[in-house]
Specification:
The protein has about 290 residues and is of the alpha/beta class. It has helices at about 20-30, 50-55, 70-80, 155-160, 170-180, 210-225, 230-245, 250-265, 275-290, and strands spanning about 10-15, 40, 60-65, 85-90, 95, 115-125, 130, 140, 150, 185-195.
Length: about 290
């Protein structure tokens, strides 16, 4: 293994998807990453033995399992605290880079210390859609793909990591907001391509009611917890309503999520890390103008 890879771990949260996870681990082997330590957080799968068998079939595979379901946001925090490495390649259980080539340069000690996260081009395999237009060059990014990004773990943990109560849904752009507001940045490298091999078997489908509830709620919390409340709450509410309007399903779950986002904005008052109004305006402008 190249010396730079000695300080890298592959980190994957999963739940109830042993078949999908097994496919991903096979693809990681093909990409030349089979010798990199693998840490998987099993978020209380119904059949933990199935997950364990898939992971421990790999020479450097380890499974962490919590006592209760926490979601992938907290699962990623647990993985960062546990892996003992400076860098973590975060993947979803259905995503993998097509090759290890190009990763080395982001693991060097002379890397830019302001880069908290490196994010990559993301290809949705079934639709062949790219996350970023192919003509977009390398440079600073407004957010990252949680299923295809390289973390400098000490930097991210110093900024608090993911907000555990997000469970999932907008946890990436929320962390990206705090990274930028604390003088760090996210870098986009389109030369590394991560495949999102999205498929669901009947036993491995996500709960779409929960999915829509959490996205409606977290889209509000993302702004209300990180901006002055008088500005952040309506800003997040507008985002939540806009998303609900364009994705018309599970209306009652979305209504509950929107109401929950407003009430949680006050219940989680001690968790707030509000920036100044000028910082909030600068973040909004950057978010609109940055193409990555």
């Amino acid at each position: 293994m190249v010396a730079e890879f000695n300080n890298l771990a592959i980190l994957i949260p999963t739940r109830n998807r042993p078949g999908i996870l097994a496919t991903t681990l096979t693809e990681l082997q093909k990409a030349g990453l089979g010798d990199v330590p693998l840490w998987v957080y099993d978020d209380c799968s119904a059949d933990p033995e199935a997950i364990r068998k898939v992971v421990e079939s790999r020479p450097k595979g380890q499974v962490l399992r919590g006592q209760g379901r926490v979601g992938q946001a907290q699962g990623r925090n647990v993985l960062m605290h546990s892996c003992g490495k400076e860098f973590g390649l975060f993947l979803d259980d259905d995503s993998f880079p097509v090759s290890r080539l190009g990763l080395e340069r982001h693991l060097l000690q002379e890397r830019d210390p302001q880069r908290a996260i490196i994010t990559f081009q993301y290809l949705d395999v079934p639709s062949q859609r790219l996350s970023t237009a192919p003509e977009v060059n390398e440079g600073q990014a407004r957010t990252f793909q949680g299923g295809g990004s390289l973390f400098h773990i000490p930097t991210v943990l110093r900024l608090g990591g993911f907000r555990h109560f997000f469970v999932y849904g907008y946890e990436e752009p929320e962390l990206a907001m705090r990274i930028r507001m604390n003088g760090r940045h996210i870098w986009y490298d389109p030369s590394i391509i991560v495949h999102h091999n999205h498929f669901e078997t009947p036993n491995e489908q996500r709960d779409h009611r929960e999915y829509d509830y959490l996205y409606a709620r977290n889209s509000i919390l993302m702004s209300s917890l990180n901006m002055p409340l008088w500005f952040g709450l309506p800003h997040g509410l507008a985002r939540s309503l806009r998303r609900s309007f364009f994705r018309r399903r599970n209306l009652w779950s979305k209504v509950q999520g929107t109401l929950g986002g407003v009430s949680e904005s006050f219940r989680l008052w001690k968790e707030r890390t509000p920036c100044s109004f000028s910082h909030a305006v600068r973040w909004c402008r950057f978010n609109k103008t940055c193409v990555r």
